[in-house]
Design brief:
Catalyzes the decarboxylative condensation of pimeloyl-[acyl-carrier protein] and L-alanine to produce 8-amino-7-oxononanoate (AON), [acyl-carrier protein], and carbon dioxide. The chain is about 45% helix and about 15% strand. The structure holds pyridoxal-5'-phosphate.
């Protein structure tokens, strides 16, 4: 055990130790943390659907009808009509021929990268891609080339310079989870055409949030779904449930059903999470006002923080990071926010590169203007106290 203790001590000294915080209420704009009610601005419940009455009711009805668990892997006894209906709904939402759900987004990325490409293939991966993409690349037998963040010249150069006997695959987050900027998808699909590469987009943070109907980055940019071979997403953020998915052609999905180990060797998602996701997708497609309100709140917070003098990363997503640099300093900032009634976690390496520790605010469509003002004032108090702003 000494080696673990030593490592934990090192992490503590560097400000990189993490601890679990316990929430005793829904992940709503106000959340009870360790007995205190705080304004929550660190959750991924972008559209506020986690505690929406209609979504809750769908989950409850599913439990009454199907019970609490699925009791088997998908290929044995775990496929219910809820799985089939949800997959059809995701395919329609993403404008693809088919879709397949996984136990979470992490597994969907692992499944895609470990089973769809292999020896002789090359994956070109943005340097700021999510850890589950990085882990999927590590798991894959394909070779991996990392290109500079959203840098199309670097991507082109690397495609040019890297011979591939097999398939090339460009993989990117749609919205980058820790920075909140969007991938330059129009340029990526053009580059991919030139080099006959497949494109894989992880729209975990864009689904429900971007696009006229909330379809994600392809919907936002007006890119035909066929130009993106593999669309990954999660049901756990704007969709307010749990699980992940891959959407694409019928043959791709059939291949995954047969060959993706995280799909084949794991128990199917449970009925309530499927029913909740299905109801949430209906709401997302019909209630554009939620998205509009979310984006208006995002602009307001971004403006308020910039006006106060904080270094805010540019972007349009409801992910608003202020860069503080040092991990201990960032932890102290987060602690002071909490003293002022705001819950926003300190994001530190290895989640972000060294020297870029940050407070990452995420908003929900159910936040109010007063919540935004409260967050700004709490930041000003913490920022002045720590000499981050004058
Ligand atoms: C970009 C991105 N991809 C994938 C995931 C994993 O999704 P899940 O939480 O459903 O495993 C996350 C976050 O958790 C993410 O931010």
């Amino acid at each position: 055990m000494k080696r673990f203790q030593d490592k934990l001590s090192q992490l503590k000294e560097a400000g990189l130790h993490r601890r679990l915080r316990t929430m005793s209420s829904a992940s709503a704009p106000r959340v009870q943390v360790d007995g205190r009610w705080l304004v929550m601005c660190a959750a991924n419940n972008y559209l506020g659907l986690v505690d929406d009455e209609r979504v809750r009711a769908a989950a409850v009805d599913a439990i009454v009808r199907y019970g609490t668990g699925s009791s088997g892997s998908r290929l044995i006894t775990g496929t219910t009509d809820l799985h089939v209906r949800l997959e059809a709904a995701i395919a329609a939402f993403k404008q693809t021929e088919a879709a397949l759900v996984f136990n979470n987004g992490y597994m969907a990325n692992m499944a895609a990268l470990s089973s769809l490409v292999g020896t002789g293939d090359v994956i070109f991966s943005d340097e700021l891609n999510h850890a589950s993409i990085i882990d999927g690349c590590r798991q894959s037998k394909a070779s991996v080339v990392v290109y500079r963040h959203n840098d199309m010249n670097d991507l082109r150069r690397k495609l040019e310079d890297t011979p591939a006997s097999g398939q090339r695959l460009i993989v990117t987050d749609g919205v980058f989870s820790m920075d909140g900027d969007l991938a330059n998808l129009p340029a990526i699909v053009d580059v991919a055409d030139t080099y006959e590469a497949w494109v894989m987009v992880d729209d975990a943070h864009a689904t429900g949030v971007f696009g006229q109907h909330g379809g994600g980055t392809a919907d936002y940019y007006g890119i035909q779904a066929e130009r993106i071979a593999i669309q990954v997403g999660t049901l756990s953020k704007a969709i307010g449930s749990e699980g992940g998915f891959i959407a694409g052609s019928r043959v791709l999905i059939d291949y995954l059903v047969n060959c993706a180990r995280p799909f084949v060797f794991s128990t199917a998602l449970s009925p309530p999470v499927l029913a909740a996701a299905m109801r949430a997708i209906e709401i997302i497609q019909t209630e554009g006002a939620r998205r509009d309100h979310l984006h208006a709140l995002t602009k307001r917070l971004r403006r308020g923080l910039l006006d106060a003098g904080f270094e805010v990363l540019p972007g349009t997503a409801p992910i608003i990071p202020i860069i503080l640099g040092d991990p201990l300093h960032t932890l102290e900032f987060s602690r002071r926010l909490e003293e002022n009634g705001v819950f926003a976690t300190a994001i530190r390496p290895p989640t972000v590169p060294p020297g870029t520790s940050r407070i990452r605010f995420t908003l929900m469509a159910t936040h109010t203007d007063d919540d935004i003002e409260h967050i700004i004032q709490a930041c000003i108090a913490a920022g002045r106290g720590l000499g981050v702003i004058s």
